[in-house]
TrEMBL record:
This is Uma2 family endonuclease. GO terms for molecular function: endonuclease activity. The keyword Hydrolase applies. Gene3D superfamilies: tt1808, chain A (3.90.1570.10).
Length: 183
């Protein structure tokens, strides 16, 4: 790791450091962490999720934008995650940005090396943001969607979904669960 990565960073310094750097990175408590290589099923599930969300936004005529992995979500001053896909409404005006503020839906694809993090630190981090209404954890091996959503009085509800139609409201997006998984 470079000397810059050995010192604690805030998210702004991290974004400057990460610009143009190879690989996928996240900032954890001030320290850049390189993300592990992915299995093919992981990459295909990310792509399928992006396409399912994009199609749902288009069908609904929603003023939203869907982004694949590569976008940064600031959790706090020293932590930023890079979800596998996200939806933001409305679309940020500056498309030169590396950071997406106020996502409504965030998606992570489960892998053996990330399961604890996806169900722990990322769950807590994403729902610490008032804008996040839905956090979808996709398990490509079992073809299951673990749907965490903000419920009454802000309580986080958990649904395990294997098939059928999901309605992510807000923003009013509908998609078939099977569409989130690689064929």
């Amino acid at each position: 790791m470079s000397r810059a990565a050995e010192t604690l960073m805030d998210v702004d310094a991290y974004l400057a450091w990460a610009a143009g750097r190879g690989g996928r990175w996240e900032l954890r408590e001030g320290r850049p962490v390189m993300m592990a290589p992915e299995r093919a099923i992981h990459a295909l599930t990310k792509a399928a999720a992006y396409e399912a969300l994009k199609a749902g936004v288009q069908r609904g005529g929603l003023p939203c934008r869907v982004f694949p992995d590569g976008m940064t979500v600031r959790i706090n001053a020293r932590t930023a995650f890079e979800p596998d896909a996200l939806v933001v409404c409305p679309c940020p005006p500056d498309l030169n940005t590396m950071e997406i503020p106020n996502p409504v839906i965030v998606v992570e694809v489960l892998s053996p090396s990330t399961a604890a993090d996806d169900h722990g630190a990322k769950l807590d981090g994403y729902f610490s943001l008032p804008s996040v209404e839905h956090y979808l954890i996709l398990d490509p091996d079992r073809r299951v969607m673990i749907w965490r959503k903000r419920g009454l009085a802000g309580a986080i509800e958990t649904l395990i979904v294997r098939d059928g139609l999901v309605r992510l409201d807000p923003p009013g997006l509908e998609a078939e669960v099977e569409g989130f998984f690689a064929a």
